[in-house]
Design a protein that fits this description.
This is Enoyl-CoA delta isomerase 1, mitochondrial. One of its GO terms (biological process) is fatty acid beta-oxidation. GO terms for molecular function: delta(3)-delta(2)-enoyl-CoA isomerase activity. One of its GO terms (cellular component) is mitochondrial matrix. The strands form two sheets. Strands 1-2-3-4-5-7-10 form a seven-stranded mixed beta sheet, sandwiched between helices. Strands 6-8-9 form a three-stranded mixed beta sheet. The radius of gyration is 18 Å and the shape is globular. The protein contains eleven helices and ten strands. By secondary structure, the chain is an alpha/beta fold. It has one domain: 2-enoyl-CoA Hydratase, Chain A, domain 1 (Alpha-Beta Complex), CATH 3.90.226.10. Helix content is 52%, strand content 16%. The structure holds ligand L4P3G6V5. Ligand L4P3G6V5 binds next to helix 3, helix 10 and helix 11.
């Protein structure tokens, strides 16, 4: 639905290539060089192992396609992405849990360090891992006023890994990130705009896509090399810790997820969602 809208709206997506895996649709406008990556995993685009693998593989594909920019959005009503699939954390198989965590680390690195500019069109709620995906893009346009975004991990009784936290610090600064992270605060669109968690707030998805394309058009006159070098210099401190500590990060998450206290919290949180 959204893909069709994008094609009609811009009226320039004539020479486009379209690829659809079941949970992810990608479109490339060959004229503009802009790709759209649309998440479509009902009911809430929760990130399980298979979905993460698809996202990671599509990002690699875009690298080969040499696109000029990318819009990340959702085809679901009211939800951008509900974060990691919590059912994966409830009584997990340690082997699969490790695989999810590693795949998420790699997907994040691929998204955070893309060689092309990226825009998150946040057309619905975006908690936890959904917020991380959005924060990893170069620019965020959020549809308002009724959706929420934030890193709410403490509300589940779990700890957002250092790279989640550092990514938030890079976007909104140390003090605001510390309060947001410790309280697990979810922000409305207007609040998110106010603290700089998103760059623009618009009333509907049509406007959001247009704003995203406008942002990407800024790069028409920017050297891709200068863009990428500048982004790498800015983002290097945030990624370096993860690159140097992947196993340590994984061990901490797996060990804490398996602990009885965390399992109890996750169980209660899942129950509250079902209610
Ligand atoms: C090495 C380290 C790497 C890994 C890092 C691990 C450490 C960090 C850990 C976690 C990060 C996360 O991302 S945890 C996920 C946190 N997400 C949330 O808290 C979102 C919870 N969901 C909601 O708030 C709401 O569902 C919603 C606002 C997203 C949508 O609300 P709505 O009313 O529209 O829909 P429902 O609430 O009725 O939900 C429908 C349906 O979906 C199920 N659901 C929702 N969210 C999730 C989820 N994240 N994972 C799995 N399932 C989810 C919900 O239970 C409903 O199911 P049923 O229809 O069966 O009842």
């Amino acid at each position: 639905m959204l893909r069709r809208y994008i094609l009609n709206k811009t009226n320039t997506f004539i020479n486009y290539r379209y690829a659809s895996q079941s949970m992810l649709q990608s479109t490339i406008d060959d004229k503009l060089g802009i790709a759209t990556l649309v998440m479509n995993k009902p009911p809430v685009n929760s990130l399980n192992l298979e979905f993460l693998e698809e996202i990671k593989s599509q990002l690699t594909q875009f690298k080969n396609d040499k696109i000029r920019g990318m819009i990340l959005t959702s085809d679901l009503q009211k939800i951008f992405c509900a974060g990691l699939d919590i059912t994966e954390f409830s009584n997990p198989n340690p082997e699969r849990l490790s695989k999810i965590c590693t795949t998420f680390q790699d997907t994040w690195l691929a998204l955070y360090l893309t060689q092309f500019p990226t825009v998150a069109v946040i057309n619905g709620h975006s908690p936890a891992g959904g917020c991380l995906l959005a924060m990893s893009c170069d620019y965020r346009v959020m549809v308002g006023p009724n959706y929420t975004i934030g890193l709410n991990e403490t509300k589940l009784g779990i700890v957002a890994p250092k790279w989640f936290q550092d990514c938030m610090v890079a976007v909104i600064g140390q003090r605001k990130a510390e309060v947001s992270l410790t309280t697990g605060k979810m922000y409305t669109t207007d609040q998110a705009l106010q603290i700089g968690l998103v760059d623009e707030s618009v009333p509907d998805v049509d406007n959001a896509i247009n704003k995203g394309i406008q942002f990407l058009n800024n790069f028409q006159k920017i050297s891709p090399w200068a863009y990428k070098m500048t982004k790498d210099i800015r983002r290097q401190p945030t990624v370096q810790w993860l690159i140097d500590n992947k196993q340590k990060d994984l061990d901490f998450v797996v060990k804490s997820m398996m602990s009885p206290n965390v399992q109890k919290s996750i169980g209660l949180y899942l129950q509250s969602l079902k209610k």
